DNA sequence: TATTGTTATACTCTATAACTATA
DNA sequence: TATAGTTATAGAGTATAACAATA
């Protein structure tokens, strides 16, 4: 949930992957763009004295909107294994952003919820994410933004479902 | 260089990140699409009995096109630290895809090059990548593909240069 | 001194397998 | 038995710091 930024390529070597080689190299463009977007996300938070990864943000939003959900349900929604989720929740819980409550109805599950502090923090995080999104989309018109999101979605469904 | 696929989200919980929350959530769409594309890449290679990550493919192409380059130059081109590159090259060298030659002019550097076997393998890999790209772009017209790549590039330059 | 490659170390994300508690 | 959460373990990407060889 938050691989390090991987700085953008330095000097373009002969035959950089930028173009030429293959039909389109969408995969490569996607990776480069994502890397830049990730770096911008991190820089936005660092500049505000906050620390959060895009994955953590998504997780917190999910918990806020589905208070009481179980770790299994959350793991499924995030597309990760339940064991992968454990240390991530440990960290967020250690930061007092969320808590694991014992479910009264099913002793096996934990009911996840944001703490009051977590809710306040998430409101702050949301503002930062909005500023971040605004910046990375600053070169696109509203129509282009919609188009981009639509095209990404089309690609996503064409990629192997697995 | 090749983080595991991270399966696509399962059942949509209330308030999935899919829409609503923020202006556009381009970052989220980007991550999901990239994850799906990565999975398709892996599946394409696995189906052909080959194993390679997008990062390894990019590295091999760079070495093929810039035979003799140093590890520092390659690390810079890939945007990773030189120490990160070492185990990656170890692995590719162990697979006999590339070799580190001592540079005759500068004893500190290694001149990287593909092996004959590596060149043949890369030709095979290129065909698989083309098939993969064709599949993930199957839902887009040629014009849409161009548009997508252009818009991704625009986003990339808007994201913090860092 | 500065640079290159390597090693040691440390995170994080990812997974599988096995264990515990509960159903 | 089956499910939820945890732990143990392992592989890969990422980095920083220190070291040897070379410039």
Residue fraction in strands of chain A: 5-15%
Largest interface (C-beta under 8 Å): A-B, 79 and 79 residues
Question: How many domains make up the coordinates of chain A?
Answer: 1
Indicate the CATH architecture of chain A: Orthogonal Bundle
Q: What is the approximate shape of chain A?
A: globular
CATH class identity of chain A: Mainly Alpha
| Quaternary form | homodimer
Report mean pLDDT of chain A, rounded to a whole number.
88
Major sheet attributes of chain A: 2 strands, antiparallel
The strand line-up of the biggest sheet of chain A is: 1-2
Roughly how many Å apart are the termini of chain A?
20 Å
The chain-level structural class of chain A is mainly alpha
Describe this structure in words.
Chain A is mainly α and 162 residues long. Chain A has a single domain (25-43, 53-157), classed as Arc Repressor Mutant, subunit A (Orthogonal Bundle), CATH 1.10.10. In chain A, 57% of the residues lie in helices and 6% in strands. Chain A has six helices and two strands. A two-stranded antiparallel sheet of chain A has the order 1-2. In chain A, α1 packs across α5 (116-136), α2 crosses α5 and α3 packs across α4. The two termini of chain A are 20 Å apart. The model of chain A is unreliable at 3-11 and 17-23 (pLDDT under 50). Chains A and B meet through α1, α2, α3, α5 and α6 of A and α1, α2, α3, α5 and α6 of B. The structure holds a DNA duplex (23 and 23 nucleotides).
